[in-house]
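Q: For a teaching handout, I want to show students what a protein-ligand complex looks like in token form. Below are the inputs, and the small molecule is oxa(dethia)-CoA. Please produce the holo structure.
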Amino acid sequence: MGFPSIAILGTGSYTPARIMTNDDLSKIVETSDEWIFTRTGIRERRIAAADEATSDLAAAAARKALADAGLEASQIDLLIVATVTPDLPMPATACIVQKKLGVPAHAACFDLNAACSGFIFALDTAWAMLSSGRYRHALIVGAEKLSSVLDWTDRTTCVLFGDAAGAVVLGPSRSPGSQILGAKLYTEGGYTDLLCIPGGGCLHPGPDAPPKVIQMKGREIFKVAVREMEDAARDILEQHGLHADQISCVIPHQANLRIIEAIAQYLELPMDRFFINLERYGNTSAASIPLAIDEARRSGRIQPGQVSLLVAFGAGLTYGSALVRW
Ligand code: UT7
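A: Here is the structure, written as tokens, with oxa(dethia)-CoA included.
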């Protein structure tokens, strides 16, 4: 018996109710809607309630993805939560989500940290595990409460990020041709200092520990991000004998509109090939791509038979791409 083709069977997303606009931010730090929008394309972001944890966002998105796939939590035997904002250092947020959803004990549930590339890393991991035939249905969630790791006095970072979750269910393909076609993951550990949360780990224990907030060298990251995302996109297209023009919808990590515009230019694709929702959510790290996938599907932007290119970069630095036929 050959290996089964694995496809995305359902998608879901959840965003917290509270909207924080650029004007709201300009009351907290010295910034303006004009600066934020021109430099990033972001207008507003969602902020989770104090009692809303990453696992709550993840579970809400996951329930919708399960309903969309027509599956029960009891049918899931692999659950991966991609996040850099786990509820706790231990146990994994995936274990907490398992309990909230009622995923059975025989399921493998674990977290994966590849920052903003987390969803693509989790997709490739789950795809490999399902393709082996040893697991049947996987739930992959990208979920972040980034508002909990922001320095709200630092205008160079706090204006960029938001809270959200997105989820997909993977399993044996139900229609001919619908399947994950490929994925490619990359890591450049030489760039760990460009984007990190310096505090909260074992490296700096004690009272003099640096703060547990995002620190970033924005301008340097920008340049590397464009190069990495372009490479990741080109590599996977080449590997599959495709030309960028054959991709009906590119779903990029939603960090900065100018980064996406630069990639569009290098790939010689018009901007209307890119699905973009960052003006409403900002950068939601691992949640960014699955949230965009869910909105693109539900708005009819993605149609059966079409091929989508997913491409992301994030802290690590990590980057990666995937090709999905719907
Ligand atoms: O998922 C990965 C996450 N990381 C990223 O996506 C980061 C990628 N980098 C970027 O998106 C951009 O570099 C930023 C949006 C972070 C910054 O845009 P930039 O065009 O690279 O601006 P800059 O850092 O060169 O700063 C320009 C000026 C500076 O003032 P001076 O030195 O020219 O006087 C900053 O102090 O803008 C100032 N500035 C701000 N002004 C108003 C920085 N942040 C703000 C702000 N409001 N929020």
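A: Two things your students might notice: The pocket of oxa(dethia)-CoA is lined by residues 31, 35-36, 39-40, 116, 155-156, 159, 195, 216, 218-219, 221-222, 225, 255-256, 283, 314 (CB under 6 Å). The chain has a mean pLDDT of 97.
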